[in-house]
Amino acid sequence: MARKRTPESGALSAPPALAATRPASATHAAVGWSGAVSMLLAVSVLNLWSPVENIAYKALIVMAVTAAGVFLPDLLWQKVHHRTLVAPRTGSWSRTFTKLLGLIGSVGGVALLYWLFPEYAREGFYANYWSALRVVLPLWGLASLPYLYWIDRRLEEPQDALWQMGRLLLLRWRDASGRVIWQHLLGWVVKGFYLPLMFTYFCTDLNKLLHYDLHLLRDFKGWYDWAYFTGYFVDVALVSMTYLMSLKLTDTQIRSTEPSAFGWVVTLVCYEPFWSLIGRQYIVYDNGRDWVSWFGDTPWLYDLWGSLILLTIVVYVWATIAFGGRFSNLTHRGIITNGPYRFSKHPAYLAKNLSWWLISMPFMLNGSVLQSARCCALLAMLNGIYYLRAKTEERHLSLDPVYAQYARWIDEHGLLRALNELPLIGALARWRPRFSAYAPPAGFTPGSPPP
After folding, report:
1. Interval 314-342 mean pLDDT
2. Of all residues in the chain, what percent are helix, strand and coil, respectively (each to 5)?
3. DSSP string computed for 396-414
4. Which residues have a Cβ under 8 Å from the Cβ of 106 and sit 6 or more positions away?
5. 14 phi/psi in degrees, rounded to 5
6. Are the C-beta atoms of 201 and 235 separated by less than 8 Å?
7. What is the tens place of the pLDDT at every residue in 241-261?
């Protein structure tokens, strides 16, 4: 059935029949759990025996095992390579070397930004990242040419963004599409920004986990502290791997990157170095006391409230695991519709924001009414930032008809669908088809469900 344009927005709308079914997820739920279990097993082995002392090298070992845990079942069981690649055809070394030039130019552009911005010259902060690059870059250099040639023979459209980037560097302007190259460069900026940040956090947390004092696990407080930390460790460990492993072979390539400046702004303010300014100067919503001070003298309330907080962390980490090898801020690498995403379009954001209220709300009630109201308003401002992130992501992902179908299904069957009927909240919560009025960028490839 052909899609038609809606009078309200001029956007392409999916056939009404599609709204009743949930589209298949870009990755099977078991794939993500395989990666998470593999990662935890690697950490356990390193805790007992480690062939290296450098924490950056230990992190690379964990990332390699995690990648194997994700991509081996993805390739051997789910056969995700069939979505992107076709039967081998005659290859072109000329085209391959053009792509290699485009790849070198892309990586060189990120390196130029690292050299240009003082943030990346900070003494010590990114030391583990630079140490890891001394291992990764030579391996990447050895594998790039044969990989590009192998992939080039199997692409239905071999003159892809990487090839166009190479043509641009060769000054063959007529062969290059400005929109395709712009999307390509935005994707590399995303990788260049998030990979060092997440890898640095990963190394710090891995070192802490490997030296964690298990004697502290003697009461609920000890278990709470360990579980809270480990949950966020699992999250950062998985996303560090996914930012590095963006490959057409595994169908984890970037389909498109957030096209709006506003979407970039509301996302980047949540991360360092920008959060240091925003968080410390404008959104300081606590008064120095945590929830423990409120419930510490009542053990059963302390245990109950702490368990509720941990439950939100479990949902948050579950949402990360559901992506398998496809997680990435600001980019579309496949539509996820299973795991917690079968209940909500934004389970991670909902869980994280709810956890902040559970952690902060008790002590907000300590002090004057005006002080409590001020703390609530500031936390609500942070919630508002995440709401804007959610809506800009919806607008971006709605370029893919698979997401449009999924969003309609969630509106009808999602866990929070009752909110859609409320006058004000419903207007804010519902997915609106006019978000998809933005024309897809040239070269955009809609996500396809598994065969």
Report:
1. 97
2. 65, 0, 30
3. HHTTSHHHHHHHHHHHHHS
4. 162, 165, 184, 185, 188
5. -75, 155
6. no
7. 999 999 999 999 999 999 999
> Which residue is it, tokens 């919560």?
429
Alpha-helix residue ranges (DSSP H) falling in 117-219: 127-152, 161-169, 178-210
Q: Which residue's structure tokens are 């809606």?
A: 6
Residue 2 three-state SS: coil
Question: What is the per-residue pLDDT across 23-61, written as a single tens digit (0 to 9) for each?
Answer: 999 999 999 999 999 999 999 999 998 888 999 999 999
Q: Which two tokens stand for residue 220?
A: 């609920």
Token pair belonging to 25: 């997820």
pTM tops 0.85: yes
Question: Are 345 and 309 contacting, i.e. CB atoms less than 8 angstroms apart?
Answer: no
- Residue 97 makes CB contacts below 8 A (sequence gap 6+) with 166
Q: Could you identify the residue written with the tokens 């919806």?
A: 394
404 in Cβ contact with 14 (< 8 Å): yes
Helix (H, G, I), strand (E, B) or coil at 85: strand
The DSSP secondary structure of 17-31, one letter per residue, reads GGGGSPPPPSS-HHH
pLDDT tens digits along 293-323:
888 888 999 999 999 999 999 999 999 999 9
Domain assignments of the chain as residue spans, ordered by start: 87-251, 255-420
E strands present in 254-308: 256-257
